[in-house]
Amino acid sequence: MTLRLSAVVVLMSCLASQDLLAQDLISQTAAEQRLEQLETGFSEGWDRFIEDLNAVQDDAEEDLVEARRDEEVRTFAEELLELADQAPRSGNIRATCRRRVLSLMMSDPRLRGFGRRALDGILADPIDEESLRKLTASAPSYAPALGQQSCLDDLERLAGKAADPTGRALVRIATLTLLASSSSSTEDQERAEAIYEELEDLDYPDALREKVARLRFAIEHLRPGCVPPDIVGQDLLGVDMKLSDYRGKVILLDFWGHW
User: Fold this and answer.
1) What CA–CA distance (Å, rounded) separates 157 from 159?
2) Torsion sign across C-alpha atoms 177, 182, 183, 186
3) CA-to-CA distance for 136 and 139, rounded, in angstroms?
4) What is the mean pLDDT of residues 242-254?
5) How much is the pLDDT for 20?
6) Which long-range contacts (CB under 8 A, 24 or more apart) does 43-50 make?
7) What beta strand segments (E) does 124-208 contain?
8) Which residue of 122, 203, 213, 224 is most buried, as measured by CB atoms within 10 A?
9) What range defines the domain where residue 151 resides?
10) Is the pTM of this model over 0.85?
């Protein structure tokens, strides 16, 4: 009796798993169709916006048209996030929707709240190699909307999800890219030094190592507050000069050329 009952339980469990798998497949298809509908509606809304904008008669009417489009964009972002939450984890719809929201935020920093939710969702899910590469390539561009410190914290979370040395190196390069674009500070310099040490122990492609070297030079010499590398040349009279000769003075460097 016990043996038969166990067999029934196992059979029911297998059937339940098959039902869940079928639901996932249906859900994935439905999610793809819903995403296509959202994108189509958003594109059509843009066409209407351009038509309405070309037909405005005064500033007040233009403001109304732009306000209506802003609301459409916010609705689109909200619907994308809702779809990302509903889509199955096994597909790519969740990440696709959230990256789409991040692209909207890059065009309009007022959508930073939506962008924050999208990025949190991406970091909460498992991340495959392709998604990691896309995210690390774009992450420095999120800083103007989300703030540099927030993006640095996000990259630190992302580093913990990197499954291989190359992925981890890509995350660290994205962090260095952010640091290279900011003013020099002791905290940032210490963070950069820790990354250099970490990267020395990782096995990753030489092309990325060259990029790290360029970023290191920029961080140590080209950021506001750093001592710039000396520039040697001749002035308009043909007299030899170097940039350090003018230390303490206001200098305007005019780089130009002709072909």
Assistant:
1) 5
2) negative
3) 5
4) 86
5) 40
6) 45/69, 45/72, 45/76
7) none
8) 122
9) 131-225
10) no
